[in-house]
Design brief:
Elements lengths: L25 H13 L6 E4 L11 E6 L4 E11 L1 E3 L14 E6 L9 E8 L15 E8 H9 L11 E6 L5 E5 L7 E2 L5 H14 L1
Length: 209
């Protein structure tokens, strides 16, 4: 005799062995919010996250709906911890900064139309009070695929060999300079790649996609 399979009880405990189905690194979550704040749904824009966490080269999608199609740009997010600067103990060639980021060099994926370099930092490091999430600030640089390829190709040690890391220094997120990765050792200004400065270029690329 066959026994009928019983219906699941809604009050049965959830098995503790179940794994999380979907997680999102904070850097990607923050980058998605930055995009969503700049590209409003009321203007036809949407930000999507791939359901597969193994999607090669793509972390976020920015889309624009029009009467004929949905236009899409893909983004890859690279994140760095942000380290506080320290006063110079002797005269140095270049200026010191309040904050520094360190990124590992990476292969530029052809699947990504744009790259976001993201760093989260504490604007008041000495505070001992509990703070809201709005207290934290971010440094966000944007590169097109071509720009990122050229940038990575020029990350060199002083001896002219490819460096394994690069980094930026800044006092406020309005001026950002390369502090590691320049063969000459000088600080190169990359403020033109800040998100606000790249916004119109991203809009144009999306409209042309």
């Amino acid at each position: 005799m066959h026994r009928q399979k019983s219906e699941p009880n809604l009050f049965d405990p959830i098995p503790t062995c179940m794994d999380a189905i979907f997680t999102l690194p904070y850097s990607e979550y923050a980058a998605a919010n930055i995009l969503a704040d700049a590209f409003k749904p009321s203007q036809g824009y949407s930000v999507f996250v791939p359901a597969s966490r193994t999607e090669k080269g793509v972390d976020l999608l920015l889309t624009k709906r029009d009467s004929e199609r949905i236009r899409t740009l893909t983004f890859q997010v690279k994140a760095s911890r942000t380290y506080p600067g320290s006063p110079a103990i002797r005269k140095v060639k270049n200026r010191r900064f309040a904050y520094y980021t360190w990124f590992n060099c990476f292969d530029v994926s052809p699947q990504a139309d744009y790259f976001i370099l993201f760093g989260l930092y504490a604007p008041e490091q000495s505070t001992s009070k509990r703070v809201a999430k709005s207290w934290w600030q971010s440094m966000c640089l944007v590169f097109s695929n071509r720009q990122m390829s050229e940038f990575m190709a020029n990350i060199k040690t002083k001896g002219g060999k490819p460096d394994r890391m690069f980094g930026f220094g800044f006092d406020t997120p309005k001026e950002v300079l390369l502090t590691r990765g320049s063969q000459s050792g000088t600080h190169t200004d990359y403020s033109s790649h800040l998100f606000a400065s790249q916004l119109e270029g991203v809009k144009f690329a999306l409209a042309s996609s």
